[in-house]
Amino acid sequence: MTIFRSNICLTILLLFISEMLLAQQDPRKFDPGLEHHIGDAFKGPEKVQWMRGDVRSIKWKSWHDKVIVLDFFDTYCTSCILSMPHLQKLQQQFGDKIQILNVTWQDKATLDKFFATNEYLKEHQVNLPVIYNDKILRSMFPYQAAPHIAMIYKGKVQAITFNRLLTTDNIEKLLNDGRIDLPWKNDFGKGSLTQDNSIEDIGVWLSGYQSGVRGQSLKFEKDSLTGNYKTSIYNREPYAALINTWGKIVIPRALLRAEQVVWNVSDSSHYKNFTNSGEAWDVKHSISYERIDRIHRADSVQAKVVLQDLHNFLGIKTYWSKKRIKCLILKKCPIEKTEKVFDGIVRYEGTDVFSKFMAFREDYPLIYDEAKLTDILEIGVFNSLDELNEQLRQYGLELREGEAEFETFVVEEEK
């Protein structure tokens, strides 16, 4: 039985994401001597083990005039699997003009079981060729987090990029122009905004998207050679950078939902990616930041310095406020027992934990905890507010529509 307590309810989603990212990392080493870069000539391995699909052989030279797409994946990578129907559609759309290959280090037995039992891929009739037991291609295009895409055309590496950039428009552009400029996905790339790639210079820098650099939240570190202190952020949306910085100053008391953000700006889409368009948005709007100091400050103090830098560079100010928001109010009511049995019971240590955890469910309004009980709540699966209330009434609680004051985060452009 799952138990949610006050000290973990605000971090459970972050822990889940971290575990998923770690799960997508194959710890085995690759041969750095085989690594390919954009513009390099490509000569694929002479022999590969492959299955599925409708290609009779994999002969790289015979595909010289096709766009070859290598889609590196793992069977436990959710985003890899979700992208496969899209890849299948692209293969069908472009026909003989392209060849998409799924590539994995996993063995045939694992893949046979995976494809035999995955109903999602069966439903979408995914049947692309799969290269398995791969070591050489992985060494040519090393990565830490899947999915990972390499595009080859006319015998050269044209792109090493993100799967969301494998679009109809980008494939057509590569076919028409013979080349394409896409953001470089380099899971090992380290950012540096200083001219000589060192941290000997003292100063502050703000730039845009850095191709070939991994996204990084606010980080503090000391250089062992110079003794200087470096603070950095790379390839982050401005909103995320600001929230992350504020998190070092004020510990958030609850998850910040969309209705708790006030945008006093001309165009909020310049600060936050609302469309989940990934790297295409990042290239236009994400920011990278560095600050090199000789003196050391406590993290919370340094974060205040960073926040002021971001405010000055971006021409904005951010602060916390409060406003009344339509919500569900958790109130006390007479106890009503039910004979219905609910599956998937989860235990919450009090109404505060329950209310905060429910904030993760964006299909329900925010919940204002008026009851403030510390008793254990055992709540099972529910598909409607009525089903949820039926369970809550057993504890003398009920959710009713209303309005309440919530903490809000304000982003405001300076006039």
TrEMBL record:
<keyword id="KW-1015">Disulfide bond</keyword>
<protein>
    <submittedName>
        <fullName>TlpA family protein disulfide reductase</fullName>
    </submittedName>
</protein>
<keyword id="KW-0676">Redox-active center</keyword>
<keyword id="KW-0201">Cytochrome c-type biogenesis</keyword>
<dbReference type="InterPro" id="IPR000866">
    <property type="entry name" value="AhpC/TSA"/>
</dbReference>
<dbReference type="Pfam" id="PF00578">
    <property type="entry name" value="AhpC-TSA"/>
</dbReference>
<feature type="domain" description="Thioredoxin">
    <location>
        <begin position="36"/>
        <end position="180"/>
    </location>
</feature>
<dbReference type="InterPro" id="IPR036249">
    <property type="entry name" value="Thioredoxin-like_sf"/>
</dbReference>
<dbReference type="InterPro" id="IPR050553">
    <property type="entry name" value="Thioredoxin_ResA/DsbE_sf"/>
</dbReference>
<dbReference type="InterPro" id="IPR013766">
    <property type="entry name" value="Thioredoxin_domain"/>
</dbReference>
